[in-house]
Amino acid sequence: MHHDPYQPEPKRSRRLIWISAVVALVLVLGGGGFAAWKLDWLSGNGEAVSFGKASTPPPAAADQQAPSQSPSGKPSPSGDPDVLMPTGPKADFKQTAKLDDGTIIAKTRLTGEKSGFEGDVWVWAPKEYDDPKYAKSGFPVLIALPGGNGFPTNYWADRSLGLQKAISEGVQAGTSLPFIVVMPVLNPDNKYYYDGADIPGQPKMGTWIAEDVPAFAKANFRTYKSRDGWAFMGSSSGAFVGMKTVLQHPDRFKAVIASGGEIVPDSPLWKGHQAEMDANNPEKLAQKLIDTNGPEVFINFQIGTKESGKERMTRFVQAYGKGPVKTTVRDIQNGEHNGWHYVRGMKEGSLEWISKVLKAPKPDAA
């Protein structure tokens, strides 16, 4: 961050001067190998993080229960039966990045109760989540899935892509809801694509994405019980998984932003399991939804004008974009197959699109 020459130089506290002196001394004594640890230490990376401070009120007097609290001492949802307060147990979060507005990206390790798969999950909550006005409100959840193998990291947790900043700026501009962003690993290894599915004989990645990750979000955050508060976004293979999961579970999820994605499952691990692969094919899932006049789902495709694949999206929209399957295609001018350009597309319109079909937090009237 560059210092603004028009702002006065902040006064340095004795503590900061002392810390700086110690760091300088250790660097002299210990060499440059200390630099990475120093940066994490000063940035707070690796420190424990607690989300939802606003949802933990001060304790009431022993002989008096605050009227807006439940017997557990936690705020009760006011007026909206769809609000789901954190169910617990709380996860142990460690900071991995801090944004300029003070919000935190943090990581935890999750063992899925339904899938049995153990993997890392990153989370980010907007400033509004800790605003006392929203202490009794649910927040919409955006599950962000990476492309490629999506293991051992989820690149949406890298602040340099600007996803979280785009959401914060959209909130300020009135074009985005303040989403909680949940960023799980997509696959169990770097060897194969698992198509976000329970491929026979393989780790149950479909159950991990569709059941364990949402259950984790509900355990740790104020969310919504209904599908109106749940959506996906993803790029490339993550776009496929997000779209497939929404079509497969329209009772749980309502929308997806699918950027530069594939349309049909293509993992080599499906060999010999045609029926199971068909059950994870977005084309067949969309047709089933149309035939049964199922719940409306919303798919927003994003595609860069400098990448291939638009014809696949166009064919899908022509064949299946009808009835309950609501589809749009957004062109990203001069866009290529990368996260930076997909975030630009979100800022240019896709965040506003998805914000119109999902449920907004409701501030306390008081």
List the main descriptive attributes of the protein structure presented here.
single chain, 366 residues, alpha/beta, ten-stranded mixed beta sheet, two-stranded antiparallel sheet, 9 helices, 17% strand, globular, disordered N terminus
What is the helical fraction, as a range of percent? 25-40%
Inertia-based shape = globular
**Helices and strands: which structural class?**
alpha/beta
CA gyration radius, whole angstroms: 22 Å
Characterization of the model:
The structure is a single chain. This protein is 30% helix and 17% strand. It has 366 residues and is an alpha/beta fold. The strands form two sheets. It has a ten-stranded mixed β-sheet, sandwiched between helices. The chain has a two-stranded antiparallel ribbon with strand order 2-8. It is globular and about 50 Å long. The chain starts with 13 loop residues before the first helix and ends in a 9-residue tail after the last helix.
Nutshell version of this structure?
The protein is of the alpha/beta class and 366 residues long. The chain has helices at residues 14-30, 35-43, 163-173, 205-220, 237-248, 274-278, 282-291, 310-320, 339-357, and strands at 48-49, 83-84, 93-98, 104-111, 118-124, 141-145, 180-184, 223-224, 230-235, 255-259, 297-304, 325-332.
